[in-house]
């Protein structure tokens, strides 16, 4: 059991300590005789947990006071719709940098609600995919917002710079990268993330939104997506995903206990460097992403001989290395190494890759 490492892209593994804490109080939470998932979200005990989780998240990310933090439903895709409804009128434009399948998905959803315009798209040179840096020009200045995805979970493409957007508010889908490094929240109008990659269990999404962007939702916006209603009600306009919220709170405590995001940042760097060093080593494995844009969280890689894919995956499972199959759009392998993946897991994977190459190279 102890030697199994789960590289799933999402829902993904959670920190071992967090799972033990949750297990210990699963049946009898705070001596109430009930589980946390069996109590009212409006009760004093749950409200304390909810407020503490919000405060811990604010501390971790240094969220300024003029930003709301919302705990809501509908995952990342829910926000693909909530963002245009809250931030744009039907005749307004939204700008999009398309760097992979999720930011592309955001464009098609936004097109239902506004004029979604792609201003830059992932490109390829010498077989390597990279993120272009589109110039900002005056024709873009009256757009309602500028959407991008700093880490593409499926494609394994990440970039750590901000698109040039003038005064147009930046909206970032951080579903698979939030909490992996410190951020300067002030640079963003909205940050959102489905929880199931780097925050907690599925069912919860977190939205961090600047004051001035709240209260502008279109009249027809479903109430559960209206940022103003969510903010006024402390994210309890309707029943929130209480268990996921509680568990996310434990993850935030764990992150603080590890030393916060600058410590986590270094650890993520170290983990990714180990894995990419192995991928780059001999040509037996390879990556099709430009070195500048290789994700630290989701690491897709291919075997030079794809006929060995199935054997690789089979033997990896036998070695306790689970869920390494690449996304169905991409094929090959993908190792997701979010915050919860210990460095030992990456070391075990690298050793397995070396052994597999030795015996099949
Ligand atoms: C997983 C993911 C989504 C979709 O999340 P759901 O919660 O399944 O709606 C959107 N964006 C990114 C970057 C993701 O990784």
Description of the molecule:
The chain contains 9 helices and 16 strands. Helix content is 34%, strand content 18%. The protein has helices spanning 16-24, 44-61, 75-87, 101-110, 227-232, 242-258, 261-280, 309-318, 343-360; strands at 5-6, 67-72, 93-98, 115-121, 123-125, 128-130, 145-148, 151-152, 157-158, 170-173, 190-194, 205-210, 285-286, 298-303, 321-322, 333-336. Helix 1 (16-24) packs across helix 6, helix 2 packs across helix 6 and helix 7 packs parallel to helix 9 (343-360). The longest helix has 20 residues, at 261-280. The protein has a 7-stranded mixed sheet. A 3-stranded antiparallel sheet has the order 13-14-16, with helices on one face. Strands 1-15 form a two-stranded parallel sheet. With 361 residues, the chain is α/β, with parallel strands linked by helices. The protein has 2 domains: 29-258, Type I PLP-dependent aspartate aminotransferase-like (Major domain) (Aspartate Aminotransferase, domain 2, 3-Layer(aba) Sandwich); 260-360, Aspartate Aminotransferase, domain 1. It is globular. The mean pLDDT is 97. Strand 5 and strand 6 (128-130) form a beta hairpin. Bound molecules: pyridoxal-5'-phosphate. Pfam families: Aminotran_5 (PF00266). Its EC number is 2.6.1.52. Homodimer. Its cofactor is pyridoxal 5'-phosphate. The modification N6-(pyridoxal phosphate)lysine is found at residue 197.
């Amino acid at each position: 059991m102890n030697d199994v490492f789960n590289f799933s892209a999402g829902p993904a593994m959670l920190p071992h300590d967090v799972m033990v804490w949750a297990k210990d109080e699963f049946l009898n939470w705070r001596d109430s005789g009930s589980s946390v998932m069996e109590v009212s979200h409006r009760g004093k005990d749950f409200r304390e947990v909810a407020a503490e989780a919000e405060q811990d998240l604010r501390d971790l990310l240094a969220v300024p006071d003029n930003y709301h933090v919302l705990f809501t439903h509908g995952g990342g895709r829910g926000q693909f719709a909530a963002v245009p409804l809250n931030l744009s009128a039907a005749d307004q434009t939204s700008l999009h940098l398309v760097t992979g399948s999720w930011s592309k998905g955001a464009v098609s959803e936004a097109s239902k609600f506004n004029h979604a315009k792609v201003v830059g798209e992932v490109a390829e040179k010498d077989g390597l995919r990279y993120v272009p840096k589109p110039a900002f020009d005056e024709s873009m200045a009256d757009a309602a917002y500028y959407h991008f995805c700093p880490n593409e979970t499926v494609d394994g493409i990440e970039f750590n710079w901000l698109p040039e957007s003038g005064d147009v508010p930046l909206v970032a889908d951080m579903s698979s990268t939030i909490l992996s490094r410190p951020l300067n929240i002030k640079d963003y109008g909205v940050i959102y993330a489905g929880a199931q990659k780097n925050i907690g269990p599925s069912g919860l999404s977190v939205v961090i939104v600047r004051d001035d962007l709240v209260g502008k939702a279109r009249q027809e916006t479903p109430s559960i997506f209206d940022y103003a209603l969510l903010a006024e009600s402390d994210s309890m306009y309707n029943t929130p995903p209480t268990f996921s919220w509680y568990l996310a709170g434990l993850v935030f405590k764990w992150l603080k206990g590890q030393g916060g995001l600058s410590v986590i940042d270094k650890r993520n760097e170290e983990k990714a460097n180990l894995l990419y060093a192995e991928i780059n080593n001999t040509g037996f494995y390879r990556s099709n992403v430009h070195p500048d844009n290789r994700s630290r969280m989701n690491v897709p890689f291919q075997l030079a001989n794809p006929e060995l894919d199935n054997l690789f995956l089979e033997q990896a499972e036998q070695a306790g290395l689970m869920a390494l199959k690449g996304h169905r759009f991409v094929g090959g392998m993908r190792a997701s190494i979010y915050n919860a993946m210990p460095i030992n897991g990456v070391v075990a994977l690298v050793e397995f890759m070396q052994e597999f190459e030795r015996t099949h190279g």
